[in-house]
Amino acid sequence: MAKERPPLEEMTLRQLRKVASEYGISRYSRMRKSQLLAAVQEAESKKLSRQESRSLEAQETVEAAKFELGQEDKTGGNLASVDEGLADLPNGYGESRVVLMPRDPQWAYAYWDISNEHKEDLRKQGGQQLALRIYDVTDINLDNQSAHNLQEYPCDEMAREWYLPIPVSDRDYVIDIGYRCADGRWLTLARSARVHVPPVYPSDWIEDVFITVDFQEDLRGETKYELVPPAKKISETAEAGNVNGNGNPIYEQIFGMAESAETMRVAGSIFGSQHQVPGSMSPEQAISSYIFPSGVGMWALPTASGVNMSGVGMGASVAPQSPRKFWLIADAELIVYGATEPDATVTIGDREIKLNPDGTFRFQMSFQDGLIDYPIKAVAVDGEQTRSIQMKFNRETPSRNTNTKDEAVLEWFA
């Protein structure tokens, strides 16, 4: 086995002269050790450079061979050189456009192609900071209505793509790319198409419906079964209970709602943005970790123009028209949470609830008018120890003047 050569710095003068003779360094016998060391290092550097150059050429030959199909062009040329005379693809195509694509329920991906001429034109009009604006346009037309909420994200002039956090899942969104001016104006370069961000929770459609249809039957214009969203079913059930004077159907109806996936979503509400809430966190802590739907709380620092980056104060209001439809829906929810030993048994109102692996529990339910009495009890696995707490909640709605969007009618106003 060949002995490994020591580093050049550790070699003796005789060893360095031997290496120098191998590299063909002239007059090495007359050099001092420091001079000889520098000459040998330079020779090794040149040798390594030549080896790397030959390796690169060999690699290029291998890469080119990948596209060599062994076929000859009828004109006599080789197919590997077909695109040799073609120009490179352009950086842009001169048409200002932006595209929004949901990546998952919590993030979206945007990319755009804006010409330099278009940017320069808006900068001359006062545009200073290039930014992206994401609008919640669920069930509205952004051309003549204000968005439910607005978030603004400054971006780099050289950027061509950006990832955006989604405030609330299961909603429709549109983004603008444009310039924010010092006086608060917003100059739009391009606007994306409307996209729907998928929900973060599992589907609440749990019913299986089977219908028998005659193969020969003409189904044109026929309705065999109408699917009703689970949220609408729950709402109708609750209203029916209040109309019949049965008060608050606490244990069956409320617990059924708490166990359904529908209670984990209130589209556009504060709790609708709580995608993942650890059981050890209180509701106040959980809410503070997320964004309010209006955008307030995400950016509180004023800009040079005194306008918050959430868009508040940018003059996005639309002049009212006569007549118009108007509507409002509002309700409340109740969250009960806690923790105990993972192997304990926890009951609420004599009904057992399921614990998480770490012993935490949390459920969310509708909070209607009336008194809700919750005795919560935990029993140790051996039945020897118990802990309990009794909580009472009372809700009162002194007045209600609300209606759904479907119930809204044209109203005249001054």
Verbal overview:
By secondary structure, this protein is α+β, with helices and mostly antiparallel strands. The chain is 20% helix and 24% strand. The protein has six helices and 16 strands. It has helices spanning 13-23, 33-66, 116-124, 230-243, 250-259, 283-288, and strands spanning 97-104, 107-113, 127-136, 150-154, 161-165, 172-181, 186-191, 195-196, 324-325, 333-339, 345-348, 351-353, 360-366, 370-379, 386-395, 410-411. Strands 3, 4, 6, 7 and 8 form a five-stranded antiparallel beta sheet that branches. The protein has a four-stranded antiparallel beta sheet with strand order 12-11-14-15, with no helix packed on it. A hairpin with a 2-residue loop joins strand 1 (97-104) and strand 2 (107-113). The longest helix has 34 residues, at 33-66. The protein is extended and about 110 Å long. Mean pLDDT is 75; it is low at 243-250 and 258-320.
Layout of secondary structure:
Layout: H1 13-23, H2 33-66, E1 97-104, E2 107-113, H3 116-124, E3 127-136, E4 150-154, E5 161-165, E6 172-181, E7 186-191, E8 195-196, H4 230-243, H5 250-259, H6 283-288, E9 324-325, E10 333-339, E11 345-348, E12 351-353, E13 360-366, E14 370-379, E15 386-395, E16 410-411
Antiparallel strand pairs: 1-2, 2-5, 3-4, 3-6, 6-7, 6-8, 9-16, 10-13, 11-12, 11-14, 14-15
Helix pairs in contact: 1-2
- State the order of secondary-structure elements, H for helix, E for strand: HHEEHEEEEEEHHHEEEEEEEE
Helix percentage: 10-25%
The major pleated sheet works out as:
5 strands, antiparallel
Which band does the percent of strand residues land in? 15-25%
Oligomer: single chain
Radius of gyration, taken over Cα atoms and rounded to an integer in Å: 35 Å
Total count of helical runs of at least 4 residues: 6
Structural class, by secondary structure, is alpha+beta
Q: Give the low-pLDDT segments.
A: 243-250, 258-320
Distance between the termini: 102 Å
* Arithmetic mean of pLDDT: 75
- Overall form: extended
Number of beta strands: 16
